[in-house]
């Protein structure tokens, strides 16, 4: 056997052995802290999406487990139950959003304790998710309510997805939502996900060859701009720490490239998100006003594109829709404006809460 070939085989064998040794160390009980735990978390980020979700099923109480969060069916059931217990004579602030807008509304309530706030939200929920929450919760609002539609700039690319699991690789919360597209005659076409509950997701993950699981994967391939083998393929490679590192690098780059492609043209292919958002805010205001409610749009701008204020302020003003644009009160490019988890600081949230109270005349 040639010397070069022997060297190559020996090198591969050493790498495989090293990979196996690292896998054994990472599999040891490690508690919740310490250097091994942090190292393990670093490698865990590279698990495939099915691997992460299956792990969440196995460890329901694990920190950061988002498996059962923000499923619309469950959310609407809880909303209906709460609505049935409410005082019918007390108007409420009903928010449809994500944590950033929740913080704004919570700050407003802290400033004005007389407010009654009902929050419907999902982690990093894109506008199609928050708009669907608003539409589906219509029966659980009353005349006189203030209705809030929250839009987060960094989540706009998710308008091309059916679930956070396809575009939030490191924390792929599996809750689902529709994709909205411009209808030819005006308005919006709504494409509902085939997956609607945590129970369905569990069943499909545990029986991947079932008709429901195959149908869901087929819809993701057809409709979801982010679904692909980089994040979902070859889950058996999760056994290798080295493969997980490689997957994480490839997946992050692939998702970033897809986001860039989706955001390239607000009014053209592959996703005319600018036109979709303008139609969303118009329909939001039309429905709320028809029901005797006050519509308010909250535009949360963080670092990067798109510029929500430039995109939507002309429509909001033309339609006389009340709004709060965080960029009017805080420069989103200032690093000191954010906490370590990426949210705005409590002091800045107070500023946003004051702006919200002004927008609703409080």
UniProtKB/TrEMBL annotation:
Superkingdom as given in the UniProt entry: Bacteria
Protein name: Uncharacterized protein
Originating species: Allgaiera indica
């Amino acid at each position: 056997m040639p010397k070069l070939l022997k060297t190559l085989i020996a090198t591969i064998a050493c790498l495989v052995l090293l990979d196996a040794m690292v896998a054994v160390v990472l599999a040891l009980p490690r508690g919740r802290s310490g250097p091994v735990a942090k190292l393990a978390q670093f490698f865990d980020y590279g698990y495939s999406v099915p691997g992460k979700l299956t792990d969440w099923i196995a460890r329901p109480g694990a920190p950061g487990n988002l498996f059962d969060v923000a499923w619309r069916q469950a959310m609407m059931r809880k909303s209906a139950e709460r609505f049935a217990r409410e005082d019918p004579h007390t108007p409420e602030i009903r928010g449809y959003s994500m944590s950033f807008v929740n913080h704004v509304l919570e700050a407003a309530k802290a400033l004005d304790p007389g407010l009654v706030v009902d929050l419907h939200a999902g982690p990093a929920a894109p506008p199609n998710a928050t708009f669907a929450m608003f539409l589906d919760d219509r029966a659980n609002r009353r005349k006189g309510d203030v209705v809030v539609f929250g839009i987060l700039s960094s989540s706009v690319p998710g308008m091309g997805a059916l679930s956070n699991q396809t575009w939030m690789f490191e924390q792929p919360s599996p809750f689902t939502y529709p994709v909205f597209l411009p209808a030819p005659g005006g308005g919006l076409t709504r494409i509902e996900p085939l997956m609607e509950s945590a129970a369905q997701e569990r069943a499909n993950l545990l029986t991947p060859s079932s008709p429901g699981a195959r149908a869901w994967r087929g819809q993701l391939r057809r409709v979801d701009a982010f679904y692909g083998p980089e994040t979902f393929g070859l889950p058996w490679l999760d056994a290798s720490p080295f493969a997980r590192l490689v997957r994480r690098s490839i997946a992050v780059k692939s998702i970033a490239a897809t986001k860039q492609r989706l955001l390239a043209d607000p009014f053209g292919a592959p996703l005319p998100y600018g036109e979709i958002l303008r139609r969303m805010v118009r329909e939001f205001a039309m429905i709320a006003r028809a029901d005797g409610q006050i519509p308010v749009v909250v535009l949360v701008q963080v670092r990067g594109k798109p510029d929500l204020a430039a995109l939507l302020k002309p429509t909001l003003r033309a339609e006389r829709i009340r709004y709060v644009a965080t960029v009017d009160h805080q420069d989103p490019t200032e690093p000191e404006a954010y906490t370590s988890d990426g949210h705005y600081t409590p002091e800045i949230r107070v500023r946003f809460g004051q702006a919200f109270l002004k927008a609703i005349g409080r």
